[in-house]
Amino acid sequence: MTRTGRPAPLPRSDLLESDLPRSDLLRFDEVEPQDDCICGGCSARRRARLHAAPVHEGGHAAARSLRRRAAVLMAAAGTALGGGAVGAATAAAAPAPTPGGPAVPRADTPQGEVGGLYGESGADERAAAAQPVTRASIIERAQRWVDQKVPYSMSRYWSDGYRQDCSGFVSMAWGLGSSQTTWTLPDFAERITKAELQPGDVLIHNDPASPRSGSHVTVFGGWADSARTRYVAYEQTSPGATKRATPYAYWSNSATYVPYRYKALTTGGSSSDSAAAAAFPGADKFGPGADNAFVTRLGEMLVRRGGGRFYTEGPGPRWSESDRRATEAFQLAQGWRGGEADGVPGKDTWDYLVNGKGRDIDGAAPLPPPPPSPPSPPSPPSASLPAEGAGVRETAFPGPGAFGPGAAGEQVELLGGRLVGKGFGEAYTEGPGPRWTDADRSNVRAFQESMGWSGAEADGYPGPDTWKRLFS
């Protein structure tokens, strides 16, 4: 042994490790790495110590020990390497296995080192100030990688500059301006509890025994069931970015995942992304036949407000009876009735869900009944459609659920007849009839625009104001 404790150079160039007894070889996992040793084993151990968590936070004792865990068994090795003083010591006990045991599979997500955008080096990535970001922006950025199907890689960088592994994924979603690791992401976050988890928070698992390939992090996207046993996880794992319902806290090593919240999280105030996320997207984004991201977001918000029992899977982008029943239950919880609790979200329902207003769905309340079957189309009227001002009776608004894709009934035909009577029947090539068509929507939109309305107020679906003006 040299003065620094490293083995002396081999006196014979033809002596191989395979020629030595296995117990006589230097074990790097039982020896504190020398600060000035340049061998691969000591370098790897020094990197593991640098990134390891403190013992009191769940780190492995071997990761940050300041002394040797065992004396080095060098007696036989000294003899085999050319003689010299023979030393002896007793080996220390092996480290305890990680939770779950060696048979538990780990996420296939090895990660790279801390680095700047596009892998640039030289900058102090830890010193960079955390930039304010909203929860909506975090989820939107995570979804962008999922939509783009960004492939997994611990050495490549996506077009936005972030490394394509799990920690680079979270660095991108948080907008850190550098690619961190699962060991350094907590520097930008605060530890929270499971009960405090909200979309945009993360769950981190660090494995001191395998700092790079055994650790993982996911973005929490909301609870997938009312019992909070499953959640929507956004993550970067092989073969690429994915969003999926995941058992809490993860498929493996569940007990060692820790929830964190980004320190610079903001409610957004007047930021454009926050305002856009809160704005009602329009009635046409919901209802039978709808298939878009707003339906998914609606379902996720309803689950967080107690509507998880209505979903057997999902929520997802395709409108389903589960979405209608969960929406109706939320509307009923606010004390709304009739057309205000029809199971299709309007401006008020969306505002209450996005901004956390009103009451949650009562878990003990009975489930809303399924909608009644649409009435059979009535026989076509023999008389001509009423003209403007020709004895039109004033009738109560039947509710937005009476109109839209899949709707059928006398209210649809009554609406079409009144549109024609008002001079807004240009889109009809025949009819109007009892089954809702695109022509009905086009004519309603034309009438709404004639009132000076725009945006969601001129979406082509009649609301109480449209109905009142048509029949006044």
Explain what the structure shows:
The chain has helices at 40-51, 61-64, 75-80, 135-148, 166-174, 272-278, 293-307, 321-333, 347-354, 410-421, 438-450, 464-471, and strands spanning 115-116, 178-179, 189-191, 202-205, 216-223, 230-237, 240-247, 258-262. It has 472 residues and is an alpha+beta fold. The longest helix is centred in the middle third of the chain and has 15 residues, at 293-307. It is elongated, with a radius of gyration of 32 Å. Residues 1-31, 51-107, 123-127, 269-273 and 381-392 have low confidence and may be disordered.
> Class by helix and strand content?
alpha+beta
Average pLDDT value? Answer: 75
Question: Can you summarize the main beta sheet?
Answer: 6 strands, antiparallel
Give the radius of gyration.
Answer: 32 Å
The number of helical runs is 12
Strand content: 5-15%
Query: Order of strands across the widest beta sheet?
Result: 3-8-4-5-6-7
The shape is elongated
Helix content: 25-40%
Helices and strands, in N-to-C order? Answer: HHHEHHEEEEEEEHHHHHHH
Task: Give the beta-strand count.
Answer: 8
Contiguous runs where pLDDT drops below 50 for at least 5 residues: 1-31, 51-107, 123-127, 269-273, 381-392
> Whole-Å distance between the termini?
101 Å
Set out the fold topology:
Layout: H1 40-51, H2 61-64, H3 75-80, E1 115-116, H4 135-148, H5 166-174, E2 178-179, E3 189-191, E4 202-205, E5 216-223, E6 230-237, E7 240-247, E8 258-262, H6 272-278, H7 293-307, H8 321-333, H9 347-354, H10 410-421, H11 438-450, H12 464-471
Antiparallel strand pairs: 1-2, 3-8, 4-5, 4-8, 5-6, 6-7
Helix pairs in contact: 4-5, 7-8, 10-11
